[in-house]
Amino acid sequence: MNHTRQQDLQRIAHQEALLQFPAFDKRTAWELGVRLKDACQAAGVATTIEVRLGRATVFLYAMPGTAPNNADWARRKRNVVEMMDRSSYAVGLLGEEEGVSMEVAMGLPLGDYASHGGAFPLRVKGTGCVGVATLSGLPSREDHSLVVRVLADMCGVAVAEVALDL
Questions:
Q1: Cα separation of 95 and 100, whole Å?
Q2: How far apart are CA 63 and CA 47, in angstroms?
Q3: Of 15, 48, 7, 9, the residue nearest 155 (C-alpha)
Q4: What is the per-residue pLDDT for 165?
Q5: What proportion of the chain, given as a percentage, has pLDDT over 90?
Q6: Is 6 exposed, middle or buried (0-12, 13-18, 19+ CB in 10 A)?
Q7: Counting beta carbons within 10 angstroms of the beta carbon of residue 134, is it exposed (0 to 12), middle (13 to 18) or buried (19 or more)?
Q8: Are 123 and 97 in contact (CB under 8 A)?
Q9: What is the pLDDT, as a whole number, of residue 1?
Q10: Cα 145 vs. chain centroid, distance in angstroms?
Q11: Which CATH architecture has domain 5-157?
Q12: C-alpha distances out from residue 131 to 59, 107, 142, Å
């Protein structure tokens, strides 16, 4: 299905509003990491998966078939979420809309920030952003969509309610 940047930005805002946990701790972070790994295996794709709570990495797994730079991409995308409290894909799309990337607009080193899809803020209802879930290894939109699919399942939200493609 065809999609526009504006449609994706609207859907991502909807995702970020709906995909919130009642609570999130290290056990939940580990469960999320395992579910992301299982979803990637079921889809037959290789990614590097990182789940952080606060600024601590709780789950990190580089699946067979990934390259060493996937972990670095995950770190750079995660840094975007930790700075902006928005999904890395949304930040990248906003930069495209404005004609200048967040990295350039804010004078950030490209070696430390990448506003490409795959990192999503982990929110707790009434608290806000408490961590980040990141995938690296697929095209931006696919990394983002896979994270959203797993988060929707864990948060009890129908995937159709938050999918990028309606």
A1: 5
A2: 6
A3: 15
A4: 83
A5: 89
A6: exposed
A7: buried
A8: no
A9: 43
A10: 8
A11: 2-Layer Sandwich (3.30)
A12: 12, 24, 21
